[in-house]
Amino acid sequence: MTHALPQLPYPLDALEPYIDAKTMETHHAKHHAGYVAKLNTALEKHSELRDMPLMELLTSLPTLPADIRDAVRTNGGGHFNHSLFWRVMKKSDGGEAKGEVAMAIKSSFGSLESFKAGFSKTALELFGSGWVWLCYRDGGLVIESTPNQDNPVMNGGGEPILGLDVWEHAYYLRYLNRRPDYVKAWWNIVNWDQIAENLDEAMKLAHVSTPA
User: What is the mean pLDDT of residues 25-40?
Assistant: First the structure.
């Protein structure tokens, strides 16, 4: 199996003015594509791993051959992270969390406003490059951060249902070094419908994985 770059679920300029088309083009066609290409190159060295699904590769990192473990961690992680990132954004419509995902956020954080404040604070305090996540774990939602292209599935931290890329390449063309402006603007394009779907899938997976 050759891992492939997914198409964006919207035009390059769909997230304007919050994320500009040039950033989207570079981010998707250069950065994400680069992770996919390097992942496939690494797996060429071990034919027995070529058909292993991406999620299984990431959860099996400690047992992978040492000569490709770091490459799979970085590039497989980058592929997984960005594939989720594109889907949890959409053209701004002023929407907010509703239904089961809204209830889960209220149960875990007290209110949507408290969740946003905690998530944004984590994004601003993350040193260097990395990601911030909303994960489903142990029947509730938690905020986590990971460095570089790591993600929670690598260490059993939970099922990510929302992820924010805080590498500078995600925002530098428009916001320069102003990460706070980027994080604040990003909330305008969060795709709550997709997050609700992700939560539903995570809950089903947790149910299947839990012994009767």
Answer: 98
